[in-house]
Amino acid sequence: MVEHGDIRVVHRGGSKINFRDPVISHDSRLLLCASGECVKVFSTSTEECVHDLRGHTGLVTGLLLKPSNHLQVYSCSADGTVRLWDFTDGILIKVQLPSPVPCLPSLWQPPAHTLFQLVAAHLPQSGDQLVEARELSAVIVDVSSNPAAIGEFIASAKRLQLEVYFFKKQKFFLKEDNKKGGRNTFTCVACHPTDDCIATGHEDGKIRLWRNFNQKKEYTYSTLHWHHNAVSSLCFTPEGTNLLSGGVESVLVQWRYNQESQKDFLPRLGGAITHINVSPDGALFCTSHSDNKITIIQSCVKVSAVIQGLVQGDSVKTDLMVDPRSKALVLNGKPGHLQFYSLQRDKLLYNLDIVQQEYIHEEGLQQFEVVKAAFNASGNWLATVEERQQKAAELELNLKLWEFDEQTQSFVLNTTISAPHEARITAMSFCLAADSQTTVLVSTSKDRHFKAWQLNSNTHPYTGPSWSCEFVGAYHGLVPECCCFSADGSLLAVSFQEVVTVWSPSTWELLTTLSQPPGAVRDLCFGRLSCSKYLLGTTGNNLLCCWNLLTCSLEWSTVMDISLLLADPLSEDMAAFCCQDGCTDLFVFKPNEPRPLFSHKAVCSGKVARAVFAPREEMLESCEESSQWLNRSQLYFLTQYMDLMTFSTKAEEEQLMASSKQVETTVRRLLQTPAHVLPSTSFLCSMFVRSLLISVTDSREEDKQVKEEMESEKEEEDSEGEMESSTSRPEAAAQGGQASESVAPPLTRAQVRELRRVKKLDHSWLSDILHT
């Protein structure tokens, strides 16, 4: 067994961008936000990611613009370092390492007993990139995870206590306990930029403005109330003329300072507001939302841009899937939607409205939600299941089949099947055989049946293709839990509690049943490629079983508490996530060998319930045994805290660093070269544009080029025939018996073709250089 070695777990894509307050640059052109282990820099006008500041090896927990240089930003991380960046150029300037490194809490996996401390660190002035901060002092022992600071003091509101710490006097002047308790718990805090005023938000939806807190017992407060639920964020504008508040209502409220009866509203911003920030010049507001989105607003007037990350709700009902067409990650998104997310660009492509009903934000109201989804092999068909369970009503189920439309480049609803089963659907799977003549979908249900749905081959000229129920199967009245097709589509495996049944999809005949130790089967996976004769399953009694389909017997079994089992579609490798001692371990193996090829202990805390193998755009060429299973596909998984994680090899990271350094070196050489030596800017730009155009050649141009080459070859053959006939004639003797001038030797066919090619070349670039 090979340990993880040079492979580590990282946030590669889809990380939370709403984890901490975003930061807007002084000129309001760029927005910076913490995203996993990196800092993302977005354009506030185009919404595009301009820079990806990488270097931290832990979760980035905070950002702060450097007061003395507005083009630089500090970032702190759970890896124990503070880094200084030039965010306009995307360059790391300095790494400041506290000594000794404090044990920073992991804010993205917070246990109930986590204790946060506010620590003051003296950052020494040094020209070295790696600096060690030796002077550390604790300011507040038990502090909130997001305190507020301004000028001379810092305020921390946690549970029922508000604390204010003055930097110069180094003592507390207000330590107020909320004795009423109940729903008056502090939720957020903000400090006025000029006045001695602190605003606090509370769980009951009220906002309190605290004044005169520098006097020990003479402080006062006033109360504002509009929110019907907890206030999640507060922020003053730079001049202090307005106070912004937000909460679960997804409404940005702007209060006039000292005229609190006057307020403005900007409603319907999407998910619940989690953070609010304002640009230093006051031109832009930005709000972070619970659906992993940042909204950029022009002074509370209108929304100017939306930066959407991977939507991460409380749970993912569907499996993690990869769209065969776009290679996008597909899973639950907004309520009633599926989101298509590009892992390569780390950007949301679009949301597909499945339920097609307006979602009502009301607690306790049961609404339709998407619980199952599956693609066929080509990505032309998408199947979804939506359900709604009212308290005193029957379960409502809809099975929908979506067809991909080439013109709109999206999925269009083709068929809706109301009540496809009499009880909740437990599993759904397409036959993924590439050479299959028919498109078949199988669904299993708590109603003790599984059904096969088939696409009718006879397409109606007006209604288009349609779906119908081809077969209904059962086994001794047992409940089917899961199902899967073999890679070639010749077999269908359906588990009925403790029994695994194998069917023939061509005749729907029950071929055999497979025995195993007692325990309900939870997952089923067929082997791939050279291991296609094996079928693997996990049981409720913490067993991993492997059956040989040729002998219909149990090949091997082992005791493992596996929470998720999945197969790589491009290799024989399989991945098993095993929950143990509150953490999840990963084991990679081949079905023909029960000994794991690779293992990684404690990839995350809690249980992994969703994972997927995503095919790589370019195959890695790793020769190390410990990382060969990542050559063709990349494994992504969701933690219990809804963080999307993946595995990165040392070779992959070195390749990324080498490519970025190559680009950086090219740009640096170009900028450092004297201007009088460089070609003209127009020449460089035209050359760059031509390089982009050359790399994109459509099929029509290629066909035209082939046709021209065939015509030129035909002309060459005709001209060569003429040349051969002319050279075969005897040389005419000149009068007077004197020999004529020597005749040039005839050209070969290859030489004629080369002359024609050189003639067609564009030599204008040479004249441009000469003129420069």
Describe this structure in words.
By secondary structure, the chain is mostly beta strands. Helices cover 11% and strands 44% of the residues. The chain has 5 helices and 55 strands. Strands 6-7-8-9-11 form a 5-stranded mixed beta sheet, with no helix packed on it. Strands 1-55-54-53 form a 4-stranded antiparallel beta sheet. The longest helix is centred in the C-terminal third of the chain and has 30 residues, at 699-728. The chain is globular. The model is unreliable at 99-113, 694-699 and 722-742 (pLDDT under 50).
Strands, total number: 55
Percentage of residues in DSSP E strands: 35-45%
C-alpha geometry: globular
Termini distance?
A: 64 Å
Average residue pLDDT: 81
Total helix count?
A: 5
**Category by helix and strand content:** mainly beta
Q: What integer value in Å does the Rg equal?
A: 33 Å
Could you describe the largest sheet, including whether it forms a barrel?
A: 5 strands, mixed
Q: Report the uncertain regions.
A: 99-113, 694-699, 722-742
Relative helix content? 10-25%
**Strand ordering within the main sheet:** 6-7-8-9-11
Pfam families: Beta-prop_WDR75_1st, Beta-prop_WDR75_2nd
InterPro entries: Beta-prop_WDR75_2nd (IPR057644), WD40/YVTN_repeat-like_dom_sf (IPR015943), WD40_repeat_CS (IPR019775), WD40_repeat_dom_sf (IPR036322), WD40_rpt (IPR001680), WDR75 (IPR053826), Znf_C2H2_type (IPR013087)
GO biological process, one term: positive regulation of transcription by RNA polymerase I
Region (Disordered): 700-750
